[in-house]
């Protein structure tokens, strides 16, 4: 049903003069023509037959214009604004006019793209960035090479089919060829993104995330392949120049994140950022362990320009005592979130001697009372973690991920004693290939460290364990200690171990029985997945 309201029109200017009278006549004639076209459109939509040849002719002309294609662009954009992105794409297939309205800037203020590093993604990315790159305000791009490699045997999976003499050489050659193709495609995709937004002055949030599996499984091997793909370094230099150009052209940038992106950010990249933008930046995240030697992506002197930072994410070896002092200056706003990445590659090549001591952390906490720290540690030795974990760190979340070095029970016990007032998230991952020998944190201990963690850390809301042995009775104890305050308890089924007495007394599946006991303690609202015990409160 269409409803039209008659609104009194203002009197045209200059109506009392002769020239003004002529303008009024033309204005009324135009208004009459518009009303006639509108009346014909209504008749066409209603489908009412008209008498007379002139009316039928008029009706035929109006009927040709009636339909979805005749709607004004503003109305189509308004309709699109109520639809989710998939429905917009489907609706745009109606006609070319609707397809032109699909990429109206107001419809795409935010754009989040998850890309598989594959040649098939390139034409789609080019089309999307050509349409939206010049006006999008918030852009987040994630590159994932792991899924692409897993189809043909990723690094370290031993997926080669050749055996016997020469089998390993063939498998190594196939893997090398795959990685060369991945990195070649990676460079093209990154170039596509950066070229499309180089002149976007409306960009407010810009985030780039590479595949962390490249960092974990390949290390410096990725740089070796990169030199084969781009031997003269022209593409890498072009990418770095484009990134600096984006920073220098920005006028509204408040959020900048670049994590695990090979060879994009350099120690001189932030110098391209104008002072007016650096002074208003609220979030800065620069995570890249490929910086050679003692070079850092940001120095304490550079950090002095970022007086409005609320959130900061850096490599732990780059966060020095001088940086902690800069953040305590009176001209800086209180920092709310500090995320630190600790990786064995960085610890091996960079010294921990310049890291903040306990007094620096106390001063920073006095300046920023609401500061919370998130630490992500990859393959860090226990002796290095003992140096890093200062008592005054307001540690809220910690994530351990290991491929070689396992976390000891002493480290878990230290965390539960020092950060009992702050800790809310504890994630323990051990990605070993041999599932028959998971390490047991409770060996030679009267109490399991994870049980003590649940007892001491009263704010603990998430506990995830993978690749470490967890005894069934300890899981029940953790659930009883934290109760409904523990929102997520996630343990892989392979990690659970049972006492022989528990297995002998049960006629049903022990894992299923354990799930029921844990869920009953935590909350009646729970879910179970095939590979996980995952108990959550909605």
From TrEMBL:
The keyword Transmembrane helix does not apply. One of its GO terms (biological process) is positive regulation of protein ubiquitination. This is F-box protein 33. It comes from Oryctolagus cuniculus. It holds the Pfam family F-box-like. Keywords: Ubl conjugation pathway. SMART domains: FBOX. InterPro entries: F-box-like_dom_sf (IPR036047), F-box_dom (IPR001810), LRR_dom_sf (IPR032675). It comes from the Eukaryota. Residues 65-111 form the F-box domain. The keyword Protein transport does not apply.
């Amino acid at each position: 049903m269409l409803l039209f309201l008659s609104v009194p029109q203002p009197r045209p200017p200059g109506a009392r003069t002769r020239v003004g009278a002529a303008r009024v006549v033309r204005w009324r004639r135009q208004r009459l023509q518009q009303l006639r076209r509108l009346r014909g459109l209504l008749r066409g939509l209603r489908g009412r037959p008209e008498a007379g040849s002139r009316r039928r002719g008029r009706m035929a002309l109006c009927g040709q214009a009636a339909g979805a294609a005749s709607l004004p662009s503003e109305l189509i954009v308004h309709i699109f604004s109520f639809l989710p992105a998939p429905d917009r794409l489907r609706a745009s297939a109606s006609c070319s006019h609707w397809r032109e309205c699909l990429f109206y800037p107001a419809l795409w203020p935010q754009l989040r793209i998850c890309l598989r590093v594959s040649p098939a993604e390139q034409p789609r990315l080019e089309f999307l960035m050509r349409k939206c790159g010049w006006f999008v305000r918030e852009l987040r791009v994630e590159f994932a090479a792991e899924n692409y490699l897993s189809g043909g045997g990723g690094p370290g999976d031993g997926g080669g089919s050749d055996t016997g003499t020469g089998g390993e050489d063939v498998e190594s050659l196939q893997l090398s060829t795959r990685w060369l193709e991945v990195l070649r495609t990676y460079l093209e995709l990154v170039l596509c993104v950066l070229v499309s937004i180089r002149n976007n002055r409306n960009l407010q949030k810009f985030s780039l995330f590479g595949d962390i599996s490249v960092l974990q499984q390949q290390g410096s091997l990725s740089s070796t392949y990169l030199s084969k793909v781009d031997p003269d370094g022209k593409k890498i230099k072009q990418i770095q120049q484009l990134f600096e150009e984006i920073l220098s052209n920005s006028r509204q940038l408040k959020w900048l994140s670049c994590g695990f992106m090979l060879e994009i950010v350099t120690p001189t990249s932030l110098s391209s950022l104008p002072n007016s933008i650096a002074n208003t930046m609220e979030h800065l995240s620069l995570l890249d362990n490929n910086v050679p030697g003692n070079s850092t992506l940001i120095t304490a002197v550079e950090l002095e320009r970022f007086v409005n930072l609320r959130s900061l994410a850096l490599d732990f070896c780059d966060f020095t005592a001088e940086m902690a002092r800069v953040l305590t200056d009176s001209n800086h706003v209180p920092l709310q979130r500090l995320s630190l990445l600790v990786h064995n590659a960085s610890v091996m090549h960079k010294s921990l001697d310049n890291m903040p001591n306990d007094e620096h952390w106390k001063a920073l906490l006095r300046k920023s009372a609401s500061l919370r720290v998130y630490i992500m540690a990859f393959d860090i030795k226990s002796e290095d973690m003992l140096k890093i974990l200062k008592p005054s760190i307001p540690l809220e979340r910690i994530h351990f991920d290991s491929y070689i070095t396992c976390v000891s029970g002493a480290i878990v016990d230290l965390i539960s004693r020092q950060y009992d007032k702050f800790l809310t998230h504890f994630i323990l991952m051990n990605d070993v290939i041999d599932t028959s020998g998971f390490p047991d944190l409770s060996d030679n201990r009267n109490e399991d460290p994870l049980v003590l963690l649940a007892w001491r850390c009263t704010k603990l809301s998430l506990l995830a364990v993978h690749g470490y042995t967890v005894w069934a009775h300890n899981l029940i104890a953790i659930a009883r200690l934290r109760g409904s305050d523990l929102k997520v308890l996630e343990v892989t089924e392979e990690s659970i171990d049972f006492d022989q007495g528990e297995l002998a007394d049960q006629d049903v599946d022990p894992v299923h029985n354990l799930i029921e006991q844990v869920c009953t303690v935590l909350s009646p609202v729970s879910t179970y997945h095939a590979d996980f015990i995952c108990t959550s409160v909605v």
